[in-house]
Design a protein that fits this description.
Elements lengths: L10 E3 L2 E3 L3 E3 L14 H12 L4 E8 L18 H13 L3 E7 L7 H4 L4 E2 L3 E3 L4 E5 L2 H20 L4 E6 L4 H6 L14 H4 L1 H17 L4 E7 L10 H14 L4 E5 L8 H4 L5 H6 L5 H12 L11 H10 L4 E4 L5 H9 L4 E4 L1 H5 L3 H7 L37
Parallel strand pairs: 3-4, 3-13, 4-5, 5-9, 6-8, 9-10, 10-11, 11-12, 12-13
Antiparallel strand pairs: 1-2, 7-8
Helix pairs in contact: 1-2, 4-7, 8-12
Length: 401
């Protein structure tokens, strides 16, 4: 176990120094109608940066057009670079660092919206897009891994301080790790060692690209501890994967997450399951389907502070590398608990959506409490403009580039 830290002291994340140990987690912004940076997206990240976080994480920057969960999301390309540089400059001006979450959505990708093929370990039906993801060949896998390396190179050019490789939520790499989804019989299926090849290969490709570029940025990963689904990724297998990732030496930290975007997203969020609001974000007949079967997809789990801590402590006990605790961190007491348990950083999502200046409030008054009530109605806004329905924050800005 690492030594206990003060959450408000500066901290090193690989080659980068953050002003404190608090990270704004990657959460879909729905602020890029043309798959390009807008003033709205900049405001979305500038507010928590001005509000005191050490680093904010931009989601979701797909490594290819077909890797998006829907067609309005940014993917790495030359046209996106000026806006991304404007974004990183704005965050740096507030004294915070900025990370780019890079990944491929795999079976979660919306092939219809993207107008591009989606890929999965095996042919897989996505009910949200009403399309099948294609069985990924060895060449497809190689192309997607190389696309991650290219994204890391472009992130450096755009001024990012870190990249977060998405290995969670049954996206591409995570779907290979899942024994429920990955029914392959070749070198990428069967044993965990085989199923982990995509995740490990992706991280090492990103690390090599960063080292070759010669500009020091941090490389982190978001990794599922468990899918929360019978037959999916288990804590035991994930711990072995994390051990391999540590020994490979490609990462500066791991952010521990949970849940499946395909089957059980509420396993990550906890709290109320906004079935009616979530269904309202879609057109019929999908809207009707979600309303009828919503309790199976959006299962309800009681909210409690630090709700992923129990599983995360298993990883902390086995790993020496820095770990980022996510899930139910809304006040100074929980932050201090995370530090006491040996975690190096904490990541926050919904609480900062409700109050972008929450960190400054907590720093000024250790007894300050978040106003987030875990209603999760913000989940239904990720298809239009992500915001807190309680506070209305952050407010949209319509102008952009």
């Amino acid at each position: 176990m690492t030594a206990q830290h003060d959450v408000f002291t500066p901290a090193t994340l690989g080659p980068v120094t953050l002003r404190n140990r608090i990270i704004k987690a990657a959460t879909f912004e729905a602020s890029t109608p043309n798959a390009l940076v807008t003033d709205d997206l900049i405001t979305y990240h500038r507010l928590p940066a001005a509000g005191g976080v050490g680093m904010t994480t931009v989601a979701y920057l797909a490594v290819s057009p077909g890797g998006r969960t829907e067609g309005k999301q940014i993917y790495w390309r030359r046209e996106a670079m000026p806006g991304l540089r404007r974004l990183t400059d704005a965050i740096h001006a507030e004294g915070a660092a900025i990370s780019a979450q890079i990944g491929h959505a795999g079976p979660v990708a919306n092939a219809k919206s993207n107008k591009a093929k989606a890929y999965a370990p095996v042919r897989f039906f996505n009910p949200l897009s009403m399309r099948f993801a294609k069985h990924a060949t060895r060449d497809d896998i190689d192309d997607i891994i190389e696309a991650h390396a290219n994204a890391a190179r472009m992130a450096i050019d755009a001024g990012f301080d870190a990249v977060e490789v998405h290995l969670g939520h049954n996206y591409f790499a995570s779907s290979f790790l899942s024994p429920l989804i990955n029914r392959r019989t070749d070198e990428f299926g069967g044993s965990l060692e085989n199923r982990a090849k995509v995740a490990r290969g992706t991280v090492l490709a990103v690390r090599r690209a960063v080292e070759k570029a010669g500009t020091p940025i941090a490389v982190t990963a978001k990794l599922n501890m468990s899918d929360g689904v019978r037959g999916g990724i288990s804590t035991e297998e994930s711990l072995q994967t994390a051990t391999w990732l540590e020994s490979d030496g490609g990462l500066d930290a791991i952010e521990l997450t949970a849940g499946s975007s395909l089957v059980n997203p509420m396993y990550l969020f906890r709290g109320d399951a906004p079935i009616k609001q979530f269904a309202g974000a879609f057109k019929p007949p999908l809207r009707w389907g979600i309303r009828m079967t919503g309790t199976k997809f959006l299962r309800e789990y009681p909210y409690r502070e630090a709700y992923l801590l129990r599983d995360a402590k298993l990883f902390r006990a086995e790993l020496k590398m820095p770990l980022i605790l996510l899930g139910g961190i809304t006040n100074r007491e929980t932050m201090d608990l995370a530090m006491a348990e040996g975690f190096d950083f904490v990541a926050m999502g919904r609480a900062l959506l409700a109050e972008p200046d929450l960190i400054n409030r907590i720093r000024a008054d250790g007894a300050a409490r978040s106003i987030c009530n875990h209603c999760n109605q913000c989940m239904a806004t990720i298809y239009s403009h992500t915001h807190c329905v309680v506070t209305g924050s952050p407010s949209p800005v319509n102008s952009g580039i």
